[in-house]
Amino acid sequence: MKKGFTLAEVLITLGVIGVVSALTLPSIIQGTQNKELEVRLKTTYNQLNQISQRFYVDNGISFSEWAADKGNVMAYAAEFMKYYKGGQKISDYTYEQDISKAPYPMYLLGGNKTNSVLCDDGGFDSEISGKLFFFNNTPPAGLNGPIICVDVNGYQKPNTFGKDIFVFQFTIDNLVIPMGQKHRNNIQLGDPNFNENQQFFYEGETYCSRAATKPHLNSACAYYALQDMSPKDANKTYWKDFLMGK
């Protein structure tokens, strides 16, 4: 009766295990990272809405109306960060500077480094948990805004729009919505006040693309990511299927 395994059999078995591990381990690691980022995104979204509600209680008007009245992005950024523990300015970078002056490189879903930044008017701020916030211009009166971008895990990788960098918008009825979500007061393409460099709103799968060449083509990913729905197929997931190219 044969006992044990030969050296050749052991080596073949180890080789098969190695091949299987090499094929599956990256997917497992990516899935774990994506799950962590999904949790961070949802936490961030809830915090933003809590701040919006607290601001209304404190001031009697929505943050959107307050920012429009101030007309100054630095003023609203400073006011917003008062609601976070450890809030502090880490960079005064704006679109007027070379992209190399931004606090860190940012990427698009396709993997390419972006040479422009959404929310590039009010610098970058951080808070005690490490999230990074960067800010866009104030909105016209009566329209939703301002728009802010949040890197939900700060300097940690992947620093990519649609993975850990997401775009949100305050509304005049006291909410915060993800870019890509419909709202009656959203500014639209063709509206007189629409300016893609200052005040903008994008929705639809065109603006959450794995083939994006500009960050605004990843701007609406926040909407799909919060619902965990692929922008290409409502029957598939965002964090597992879409981000992994399925």
DSSP summary, beta strand count: 6
Helix/strand-derived category reads alpha+beta
Radius of gyration in whole Å, from Cα?
21 Å
Give the number of domains: 1
Strand content: 5-15%
The largest pleated sheet is described as: 6 strands, antiparallel
General description of the model:
The chain is α+β, with helices and mostly antiparallel strands and 246 residues long. Helices cover 33% and strands 10% of the residues. It has five helices and six strands, in the order H-H-H-E-E-E-E-E-E-H-H. The radius of gyration is 21 Å and the shape is elongated. The model has no long low-confidence stretch (mean pLDDT 89).
Describe the protein's topology.
Layout: H1 7-59, H2 63-70, H3 73-81, E1 88-91, E2 124-126, E3 132-135, E4 147-151, E5 165-170, E6 176-178, H4 221-227, H5 238-242
Antiparallel strand pairs: 1-2, 2-3, 3-4, 4-5, 5-6
